[in-house]
Amino acid sequence: xxxxxxxxxxxxxxxxxxxxxxxxxxxxxxxxxxxxxxxxxxxxxxxxxxxxxxxxxxxxxxxxxxxxxxxxxxxxxxxxxxxxxxxxxxxxxxxxxxxxxxxxxxxxxxxxxxxxxxxxxxxxxxxxxxxxxxxx
Length: 136
What we know:
The protein is built from two helices and eight strands. By secondary structure, it is α+β, with helices and mostly antiparallel strands. The strands form two sheets. Strands 1, 2, 6, 7 and 8 form a five-stranded antiparallel β-sheet that branches. Strands 3-5-4 form a three-stranded antiparallel β-sheet, covered by helices on one side. Strand 1 (2-7) and strand 2 form a beta hairpin. The longest helix is centred in the middle third of the chain and has 19 residues, at 57-75. It is globular and about 45 Å long. The relative contact order is 0.26.
């Protein structure tokens, strides 16, 4: 589950999940919901592989979302499926979506960057929590 919150001229993303795989997948869903709003009509037609090394979870989340943002910017993919495995050494993921068609869908926000400001990933009694700020 993810939620968006206001942060001065930026947007914040807060994600809660039972495990790390869900946390990272929901963070990806949240990112694309910020970019494109309702993604219910987007199909998983094109897939991409993502493999990242990293032991610190907050930086791994930062790198993960940066990689997803790069896939959007370089291939114009609106991603809707996130199958991943987060380990102590990093993550491996298969993501899927379809190219953005400006004739069919208006974008909600231009996300310029994922920031380190307020970045945190922590395990709590009820599961995992992540928070981060997006520069829009």
